[in-house]
């Protein structure tokens, strides 16, 4: 069975619904009047607000940014200023980006799991 984080359900889907109902890591409390920005996160259509970083957008949706490629443990960013490598994610075309210092853009297609993990999760039958 593939490792799954608390915000990944048995079908490999991410989002606050998969975290036991206790909601996302971040909750927006201010600046809610900015324009919405639609993007794709792990194959799902989601939205953020103009000016949000990719990290903010991901953590407003779920509990983690990615899983560690070494231990499989969930990661949510560390320094939040681009100095470490804890928040690296990829675009669907394979380009690595720092989620903490990259602004989310309309139409962006982000994947939070390594391609081999995605292939394994898709090949594994749902339980």
Task: Please give a structural write-up.
This is (2Fe-2S)-binding protein. It comes from Trinickia violacea. GO terms for molecular function: iron-sulfur cluster binding; oxidoreductase activity. With 127 residues, the protein is α+β, with helices and mostly antiparallel strands. It has a five-stranded mixed beta sheet with strand order 2-1-7-5-6, with helices on one face. It has a single domain (16-123), classed as 2Fe-2S iron-sulphur cluster binding domain, sarcosine oxidase, alpha subunit, N-terminal domain (Ubiquitin-like (UB roll), Roll), CATH 3.10.20. The chain has two helices and seven strands. Residues 1-20 and 117-127 have low confidence and may be disordered. A hairpin with a 6-residue loop joins strand 3 and strand 4. The protein is globular and about 40 Å long.
Keywords:
127 residues, alpha+beta, Ubiquitin-like (UB roll), 2 helices, 13% helix, disordered N terminus, disordered C terminus
Short characterization:
With 127 residues, the protein is an alpha+beta fold. The chain is built from 2 helices and 7 strands; from the N terminus they run ββαβββββα. GO terms for molecular function: iron-sulfur cluster binding; oxidoreductase activity.
